[in-house]
Amino acid sequence: MGIEFVLSLLLVSAGAGSPVLVPAPIKNVYIPMGFDDNDITQVVVEGSFESACYRAGPSHVWKDPLQNRIAFHLEAYYYPEGFCAEVMTPYLEVIDIGELSKGVHQIFLRPELQGLELKEVGQMPVAEALSERRDEYLYAPVDSIAIVENSLGRRRDLLVMGTFTNSCMRFNRNIEREKPGFRRVSLTAQNLLEVLPVLHDIEDTTNCRDIEEAFVERLSIPQHIQGDRYLFHIRTMSGKSFNKIDRIDHP
User: Fold this and answer.
1) What is the reported pTM?
2) How many domains does the chain have?
3) 112 and 11 both lie in a single domain
4) Residue 68 belongs to what domain range?
5) Using one digit for the tens of pLDDT, what is the confidence trace for 43-85?
6) Cys-Cys link to 108, which of 14, 69, 71, 135 (CB 3.0-4.6 A)?
């Protein structure tokens, strides 16, 4: 009896009526860096719903290319009928902004869909692309991460995980030596760590074959990055990203 009652609270009733669109409560806005003018730019928003009656809904984006101003609004689905757990439900949503021209773009949150109020949340610098490729590098198809202890017992090692789909896919672990200034893990904003899981370019596919091979790559977080709560923004294949919020220990 007790278990069935708890489960009924955790789930929205299957017979609930149509959801209502309401503004999503936004706690933090993360603005990834390192985009070129041929990338699909993104912002990541974090918040919490007051109960399980809410689900993240559609996003809306407005662009003013003459003034390099971008505004966005995120909605949530609210299910007014049925039974829901009265618990805070955190969410993390990626909003695709699309391609932007070279320059520094102001990013604004529009709290109300039909309102005129704009709240500036930061800036996004966009560089000129050095090639016609969507990404300057070939990134691993990462679909999950984990923070684990290093040799000193501190949670400062990052595991990136996913599945290779080609037998020629291999991590380029020498890229930091090959390209001075390049970092596979870097602090690009106060609360955002950018992770670049770069693979070797596949120039000759003669001996390559289609596979499904799980991978786990271990990366060390640089010592100058202090212990705190961060958004880990991991660039992946085809201009996409994987995002997760987690804490790391002090060095």
Assistant:
1) 0.87
2) 2
3) yes
4) 2-127
5) 999 999 999 999 999 999 999 999 999 999 999 999 998 789 9
6) 71
Question: Based on the domain organization, do 6 and 121 belong to the same domain?
Answer: yes
User: Three-state SS string across 28-89, please?
Assistant: EEECCCCEECCCCEEEEEEEEECCCCEEEEEEEEEEECCCCEEEEEEEEEECCCCCCCCCCE
Domain boundary among 104, 127, 150: 127
- Considering the domain architecture, whether residues 88 and 180 belong to the same structural domain is answered as no
Q: Check whether residue 198 and residue 144 sit in a common domain.
A: yes
> Which residue in the block uniquely carries the two structure tokens 């017979």?
15
141-183 per-position pLDDT tens digit: 999 999 999 999 999 999 999 999 999 999 999 999 999 999 9
How far is it, in rounded angstroms, from Cα 237 to Cα 208? 18
